[in-house]
Each structure stands twice: as C-alpha cells, then as structure tokens.
Amino acid sequence: MIAGFFALSGCVSQTIDPVKINPTSPPEICMIENATKKVRQGFTDTYRAALQEKGFTVKQLPPASNPSDCHLSTQYIAQWKWNLTIYMSYVEIKVYEDGRMIGKALYDARIAGLDKYINAEDKIREMVNELFPQTPKTTQ
C-alpha cells in the first residue's frame, strides 16, 4: 500500500529560461528537425504552430544542421512513454541566437504520478508562451 502511494505521488518538473528577443531581429526562426524516432509528428506540428502563433516565420532545417546556420534557431527533444496510456514524458527545447544558447524550456514527467497525464498540445503551447514572452508580435 505504501509503495503504491509513492508510485502515484511523484511530481512533474518544469523550468523555463525565457528568451529575450532583440526587437530588430527578423521574425524568422529555424527549427532543426530532431531525427530520433521518439519525437512524434504531433509534437513537431504543435511546436511549429505555437511558434507561428507567436509571430515567427518557421524554417525547417534537417537534423544535421548547426544552430549557427540561422540568426535564431531552435532544437528540441520530445519523448513519450506508455503507462496506462501514451503520455508526453520529457521535453527539452533550446533556443539559439547566432549559435549561442539564449533560452531553454524543460518539462520532465518521467518520475511523475498521475499529474503526468496532461494535454500535450496545451503544455507545448504553454511552454512556448513562457519561453518567448516577448516575440516579434509584441516587440513591434
């Protein structure tokens, strides 16, 4: 009984280091594709859409691209696991300006309890909103 309680009582961890956008920067961001099989197309589509909703023009780059290939770029890891159902267990998003990391978002539900069962699309949008509090739409 006690072991069952501890299995359900873990918690989700989330940290965001927001990006400070230069108001004169072009509103384009290069999204460097993650080639691992664990990244679901739904994550990539939702992340791209959330960036576009914030005012960015998104340019897709192949997995071998370097963050310094564009003025503003992003790389991501997104993993899903199975436990009663499929759930988003881990997300790491990094944002680079001229190859230098300027922001990061981390969501970790790998040891979480029941609070890991969330709407992944809503969580991705929330993370993007917190990661980019100031965007091309709000700096003009």
Entry keywords:
140 residues; alpha/beta; Double Stranded RNA Binding Domain; six-stranded mixed sheet; 4 helices; 35% strand; Lipoprotein
Protein described:
The chain has 140 residues and is α/β, with parallel strands linked by helices. The protein has one domain (20-139): Double Stranded RNA Binding Domain. Helices cover 26% and strands 35% of the residues. The chain has 4 helices and 6 strands. A 6-stranded mixed β-sheet has the order 1-6-5-4-2-3, with helices on one face. Helix 2 (41-53) crosses helix 3 (120-131). Mean pLDDT is 81; it is low at 1-9.
Strand arrangement, major sheet: 1-6-5-4-2-3
Largest β-sheet summary = 6 strands, mixed
**Low-confidence segments:** 1-9
Mean pLDDT: 81
Helix content percent band: 25-40%
Radius of gyration using CA atoms only: 16 Å
CATH topological fold name: Double Stranded RNA Binding Domain
Could you tell me the strand content as a percent range?
Answer: 35-45%
Distance between the termini: 57 Å
How many beta-strand elements?
A: 6
Class from secondary-structure proportions:
alpha/beta
Number of domains: 1
Shape assignment: globular
- Name of the top-level CATH class: Alpha Beta
User: H/E element string?
Assistant: HEEHEEEEHH
CATH architecture: 2-Layer Sandwich
Instruction: Note the total helix count.
Output: 4
Protein name: Lipoprotein
Organism: Ventosimonas gracilis
